[in-house]
Design brief:
Largest sheet: none
Helix content: over 70%
Shape: globular
Strand content: under 5%
Radius of gyration: 21 Å
Number of helices: 5
Distance between the termini: 80 Å
Number of strands: 0
């Protein structure tokens, strides 16, 4: 009887560990950006957001805040990767041009 209970306990612990491990991987994947974005935006990252770890949520906020200062190469890579929409880029460019007049 004790062995059945310990087997059930071990099974429950393993199931929980797998579920938690999967959640951690999913959370990490949610922050990951493609290699093409990393390469295209490396200079922008170092210029504007290097105070943050490249895979942190803060770097995403920082890059969004630096939006109008990002290189065209970086912006194009972000759009291609689906990190930002072309409509958002156009809206921000319109706002930046209006503000500079």
């Amino acid at each position: 009887m004790a062995s059945k209970r310990s087997f059930k306990t071990m099974k429950a612990v393993l199931t929980s560990a797998i579920a938690l491990g999967g959640a951690a991987v999913t959370a990490n994947d949610a922050l990951a950006v493609s290699l093409s974005v990393q390469l295209a935006c490396a200079t922008d990252y170092y210029a504007h957001c290097s105070a943050y770890s490249p895979d942190s949520p803060q770097v995403r906020s920082c890059m969004r805040a630096a939006g109008s200062n990002l290189s065209k190469r970086c912006v194009n890579a972000l759009v291609a990767a689906g990190e930002v929409s072309a409509a958002e880029v156009a809206r921000r460019r319109g706002t930046a041009q209006t503000a500079s007049r």
